[in-house]
Amino acid sequence: MTTTTPRAVVRDDGQPAGAAVEAVRLVNVRKVYGTTANPVAALDGVTLGLPSGSFTAVMGPSGSGKSTFLQCAAGLDLPTTGRVYIQGEELAGNSEAVLTKFRRQRVGFVFQQFNLLPTLTVMQNVTLPLRLAGRKIDRRRCREILGRVGLGDRLDHRPAELSGGQQQRVAIARALVTDPRVVFADEPTGALDSRSAREVLELLRESVQVYDQTVVMVTHDPVAASYADSVVFLVDGRLAGGLDNPTADAVAERMAHLGETHDVQAGA
Ligand SMILES: Nc1ncnc2c1ncn2[C@@H]1O[C@H](COP(=O)(O)OP(=O)(O)OP(=O)(O)O)[C@@H](O)[C@H]1O
């Protein structure tokens, strides 16, 4: 009989072989802005994995690196050092064309200011990512998604004819139309009244619970964060702990004491 010494098999992204592939994984990500003489580390060694089908809120004080985190995780920008994986595939290559293709195939975005094209109708805005990716436009599916966000009767309207909340729902439909694995949202409720904000957050949660997508959302608002499955906190570009099943009160309480938990690198 022969015996073999068990050997841990580790995948290229640092995860044990056989582990479920995470939707997003950052490994020791640093992003440095500024000059060599005066560098600013917007992200300072962030290692974090977000499971598929999870809804994560990213919080922290102003300047803590939240937007930089989202930009790097989503492939809108490249880290100075470290690695980023979406659904197990490394976001690599330094040409903008490669990054653009990667984003078009795998991720969707929702921004605070909606970023709809004003001259296009609702339907044209929603089909745009498919056109840009050279993919077939299935109008029935687009109508279905717009119905899902409550805008099935507004297909021919232009953004200026819609309320802020409705515009953000168009933006969500546009983010979902390519069936991305991960939707990144940067302050998606920042420009909305509380009722519209609630509708937008419910749609994001539905895309996780019903459609098994993964959502990563930067927010300043503890109520918005309470719609997520978990919250990760950033302070000075470093992870400063997390919170599962967050309530708005628990999030607000943590935010109030964030500086004190500064050096905890969680979720690695
Ligand atoms: N393009 C840039 N050039 C130089 N410094 C930058 C740049 N972008 C961000 N920074 C710096 O990096 C740090 C993190 O910025 P970031 O925008 O990620 O923070 P944030 O948490 O999203 O802030 P806020 O909540 O105010 O939007 C800040 O010190 C910021 O000044």
From TrEMBL:
KW Nucleotide-binding (keyword) present: yes
GO MF term list: ATP binding
UniProtKB keywords: ATP-binding, Nucleotide-binding, Transport
Alphabetical list of CDD domains matching this protein: ABC_MJ0796_LolCDE_FtsE
Ranges for domain ABC transporter: 24-261
SUPFAM superfamilies according to UniProt: P-loop containing nucleoside triphosphate hydrolases
SMART domains: AAA
Keyword ATP-binding applies: yes
Stated name of the protein: ABC transporter ATP-binding protein
Taxonomic lineage: Bacteria, Bacillati, Actinomycetota, Actinomycetes, Propionibacteriales
